[in-house]
Design a protein that fits this description.
Blueprint: H1 19-30, H2 36-45, H3 57-69, E1 74-78, H4 84-92, E2 98-103, H5 106-118, E3 125-129, H6 132-141, E4 149-154, H7 161-171, E5 172-181, H8 193-199, H9 204-222, E6 227-232, E7 238-243
Helix pairs in contact: 2-5, 3-4, 6-7
Amino acid sequence: MENGKKKAPAPSKALLQSEELYQYILETSVYPREPEPLKELRAAAANHPLALMGTAPDAGQMMAMLLKLVDAKKTIEIGVFTGYSLLLTALTIPDDGKITAVDVNRESYEIGLPIIRKAGVEHKIDFCHSEALPVLDKLLEDHENEGSFDFAFVDADKISFLEYHDRLMKLLKVGGIIVYDNTLWGGTVVMAEETVTEQMSELKHWIIEGRHWTIEFNKSLAADPRIQISHAPLGDGITICRHIY
């Protein structure tokens, strides 16, 4: 190590106050059970300039359990990035299961695509290179799609979360699960806007706008009687919604 100093750990998506405690959780309970294809994809995406946009492994572990608990077979994913959560879902659902995966950026998806193919699960994925709302609206044109999806994962533009939620509630069956990512927005949801402005010099406008829409979305979910929710501090915050009527 240079000058005998211990290298500082890279920043994580965790909101735990102790980085050491988060590493303990990962190394004790998450990484030992993480399938090899997911390890490989995580490593392949590590040098991406926006690597922190990827699904946190501890949040992914929770998603895998939820997929199993609802016996998910037909799912939808809005926001794919390099494909960690998509591969996780494809590995978890049955061989004849299907995932409608939507993202405007195919280039990032193609980072993980060779690993998805190598894992033998590409046949489960219908990748739509598109904005999400037109895809959701197209699905709803076929009434047979209403109430037919078992699970949804959303990790996309926060300004559209409320519109995604409105449509996903029509597509999701009663008892189905929606997981929304980044619902604590780096901890900024509890910061004053002026503090965020002072501390977040880079990408300031994007962070402030995302903070605003995340706060509004969290309020909306808390007031939605159609769902049971759990707001979990995994990764950058995930909100788990179960469709109850």
